[in-house]
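INPUT
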Amino acid sequence: MSSMPERADRTAVDPKAPDATAVVDVAKLEDLLLGRWADLRRSARALAGDPRFTKTEGLSMADHRARVLTQIKTLAAGGDVLRAFPAEFGGSDDHGGSLARFEELVAADPSLQIKAGVQWGLFASAILHLGTAEHHRRLLPGAMSVAVPGVFAMTETGHGSDVASIGTTAVYDPATQEFDLHTPFRAAWKDYLGNAGEHGTAAVVFAQLVTRGVNHGVHAFYVPLRDGETMAFLPGIDGEDDGLKGGLNGIDNGRLRFDHVRVARANLLNRYGDVAADGTYSSPIASPGRRFFTMLSTLVQGRVSLNGAAVNVSKLALVIAVTYGNERRQFAGGSDTDEVVLLDYAEHQRRLLPLLAATYAASFAHERLLETFDGVFSGRDGSDEDREDLETLAAALKPTSTWHALTTLQTAREACGGAGFLTENRLVSLRADLDVFVTFEGDNTVLLQLVAKRLLADFGREFSGIDAGGVARYMANRAADAALHRTPLLRAVQALSDGGNVRRSAGQLRDAQTQRELLTDRVDTMVALVAGALRPATKASRADAAALFNAHQHELIEAARAHADLVQWEAFTAGLARVDDAGTRQVLTWVRDLFGLSVIERNLAWYLINGRLSAGRARTVTSYIDRLLGRLRPHAQDLVDAFGYGPEHVRATITTGAERERQDEARAHYRAERASGDAPVPEKSLPRARPALAQPSPGARPVGTENLTAAS
Amino acid sequence: MSSMPERADRTAVDPKAPDATAVVDVAKLEDLLLGRWADLRRSARALAGDPRFTKTEGLSMADHRARVLTQIKTLAAGGDVLRAFPAEFGGSDDHGGSLARFEELVAADPSLQIKAGVQWGLFASAILHLGTAEHHRRLLPGAMSVAVPGVFAMTETGHGSDVASIGTTAVYDPATQEFDLHTPFRAAWKDYLGNAGEHGTAAVVFAQLVTRGVNHGVHAFYVPLRDGETMAFLPGIDGEDDGLKGGLNGIDNGRLRFDHVRVARANLLNRYGDVAADGTYSSPIASPGRRFFTMLSTLVQGRVSLNGAAVNVSKLALVIAVTYGNERRQFAGGSDTDEVVLLDYAEHQRRLLPLLAATYAASFAHERLLETFDGVFSGRDGSDEDREDLETLAAALKPTSTWHALTTLQTAREACGGAGFLTENRLVSLRADLDVFVTFEGDNTVLLQLVAKRLLADFGREFSGIDAGGVARYMANRAADAALHRTPLLRAVQALSDGGNVRRSAGQLRDAQTQRELLTDRVDTMVALVAGALRPATKASRADAAALFNAHQHELIEAARAHADLVQWEAFTAGLARVDDAGTRQVLTWVRDLFGLSVIERNLAWYLINGRLSAGRARTVTSYIDRLLGRLRPHAQDLVDAFGYGPEHVRATITTGAERERQDEARAHYRAERASGDAPVPEKSLPRARPALAQPSPGARPVGTENLTAAS
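OUTPUT
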């Protein structure tokens, strides 16, 4: 992982420029990135690099599942994985620290991480948060120790995102003081459940609670599933294995069906809703809607930790691609003897470095999310608004970082060519395992719509005194007015004519306040415009309102993405302020600028259409990005080294130094051959007997094969 | 595969609009898409759906390899896979038809297709095209029958795209009339070779031919590898298995090393370069460069067939996602009783339908490529320029269609949610296998640079009489001038003011000539600008020229992409002209428009910055795309049905009608419950004892969990 190759010609150092002297303090930057829970992360990484926990590639599904089950039992015994649980049960009441550790497990094997998430983050956590003291005493120890591998049986084949509409019912029978748990049709089978395929001996099952003829909505029930010895399903229970998946095959996902299974009244996890022996329902939360959301709100920890895991995997991917890109050579450039290092190619920089910048942004944003989570779950920041902010932040960041991880893994894989396709180089394996992160624990597209709704709600509160027409007029004026009254710096940027000084205008784009204004303005404007368009929905029929909403679904999602970009940028900028080493701050500022301008470049058409950037300024965005790529290229290795991963985490053959050794050996071979004078003479350097024939005609050259010699 | 769901509210049919009556003639459209080699494609599809050849998911690598080896032997015996070979050896001299059939095999198992490609498209084909009559008689029969599973040993660990720089040497020894084949260092090991891991008993090895102290460049040698009985490597040969890969694990890729292996002089495949007994070198092609390109030019058939396979896989992915999207329901929309079909969501349409349009474009473009290929390889169109056009066309389309296939597979997988992640639904399996298509047989990024060079060369010829300054001035004027003198229709579009009639301006965007002008102008302008920027390279030092080229690498690649977009659009438009059924033509015209405008929308910033579109017109692009999505939505199922695949090719559980049955059963259950009067009453519909408590406060609702009920 150590490497500092020479700069490419196009990025030649100007000794007077600040980049000539900027040096990253890698150790300090690593500390900054590890953040508040650095020590816990380091100890979790020690486990994640331990051969007992690392993924063995190529195992059969059965062997992989067995291995992961053994691993989580080992972790339960000594892996400090129970921090989030109460001290009285052996935990530490440490919510943020627990997730910080959990996220690091992804470097061992994503299957292990997710299996651990099913057991402790979902199954045991549901007992803790939805059950009461008796449940904790009776059920938590087995769930925590994995004596009882557990299933979190919420999703059904027919209902994933829309949990409120699940079909499974639990009808209370006062005669026996039991619930009748039943799956009424095929679409109501529980599905995609970790531990359901093989290992689970109990489940927390979500079902519509019906008593005295009233459906009180979705509640959770603790249900024994299998005989712990024979592993046969208990009477009335049936299931199917989900079988092979695109990844995460160390987890035994499966389906469950209940045929009038009797569940003791005491097994209703009754913190938010209870049924008396006579069938009387009671709840501390009167509103069924609010009760439902409260019961599901612990799910946010899944999103928080997936966000962290996705960021970690993006880092691993970039360690691999940047290290290889700094060692691998291909095609002679301006030299007769040395081929060009891949990362010196401008396109290679264009592919990898913006992803590196976005990974830094996602990393800082994740730290903010985890701190927010810790505040809420510790009770320090316990207001409804705090909880709402946490939910929105998680819903904004999880889609952004999980899609980013897939893009980064794929780009890294392609940047490593055929070597990237070999499992021994890790990228394809990680990509396969991370794939489902974009649709589970909240489908990304669904989550972004939630974020958009929150943005609309906030906007609605802000403009509650103004009527619909007023908002529309306000926004129309605002959108049409290039010199935005709320953004003086933007106006200053725009005041430069297209033919103005490029250096000066790049200087302004690099100004943090300019980037902030551009990113903020986009979110505000998009939200206001869509809010205006949706106003009529409040007075429309349900069908018309749904149609209107659907007609603007894409804009809503785009507004939420823009919001997530802004959140990441703000978190990055706040993180920058904590850097005291001048060289590190300089380089990291370029990284932040590259992130901000890449977001702006991606949405350049919006800025142009809405009069926020002139054509000349828009060109400057791209040319300044090119400058930043050149400046950052010599620091790329430091920037990935600062992620702090060792070879035991990266586990890719091409980053072991093997490629550098091969390149050195090959160059030494040719150097020795040249020195010996024994090298064969190239035919093309010989004088020709028939020069007329030897002259290649440009038109006659099959162009398509040129790639084989002349790609750069 | 048959379905015609009701339209979404937002796309309600206007009975006077043409879309109300447009009906696709699915059978005719299928014929059109199958193209010139429809009969051969149909018979190949019969094999591709035959259980003997379809992929068995979840096999171990060893079992998968063994199965695929058996499969290609079965194909050799009766699969009509030898059409491209000469009649005298049992073939049909049918190049286009052979590839058309070959492409269809991807639906059986991509490993089978690629293993077949290694055996016949590379190994046997090299004997045919690089060898002479004696080689054909002696070596072709075994290669064709798979009696000799063969390796195409070109790529080395250290050199993939840059074949001219491979390190393996073959030094002629007149004393024994043998070549000394040698791997001088680790980076010169042959690598990533199909059949090298286990099954190959011979190889065509590419090495630097050295005789009498002169290196005549890369030549091909026929080299026995393993004992056909024991499968042990022959003396001096060693190898390694590449092991598990991200996909295509039915192929035994591996590495080979030669330690002074003696190769008989007769085993030099000597069509383009020969060595006499005394060591005298001769060649019918005097220029070493041209000779090299000629020897490699048969590789183009790999790119052509990968292009076709990628298009076929994109079609399969869309059959799955569109069929499921037409059956799967989630979230209540405007109705109390029926949930909304996924494809009625605007975002779902936005995700899938532009990919459907691009798949149609890629399909028509592939037919054109295959016809070009057939013309060249049959000798009908045998000029150097024809061959050059073929190479450029393949280099433009292969990157476009292979990246498109990965995007389509992933989008389809996400659009199917958790079900998409199950291997039984095929998408993850296809994606894993197709991944390497973007970097093998010519790395996509490298190929696009070739295309750019050809575009520059053509531009250079066109402007050969004008000096550098003249070109720069010409382009500067052209780029700055919104009313382009060469594009009167564009001027007409621009002449509309931003506040103009939206319907009329959408009408112009739908005009084929307008789309053509916009797409063509972008290619021409990008090429001219980069050509101007690169002019100084002709007078610069080699290092400076390389640096200048590198500084513009990204623009070159973007220009090539733009060219590929245009080629696809033109092929689509030409294909449209062959449709005589009015309804089909109408719908297909919308598909073409959606493709064209999606390309323009993707590059909207370019059109705005360069003054080709006003802000108002740019908005119209997006709003017209929205209209097209609504128009096409009711035809989506017909458009995927016309791909002509049966369930034996699709092999995804969710497209068997299972989802529709589940939805029907669930809706019938609730209907019956409502009709019986026994349905439990929802708590929220009851009068409240404590209305104050029951009133949810908007601020107190945890927003993050809303996704679970209110995603649309």
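end of record. The radius of gyration of chain B is 29 Å.
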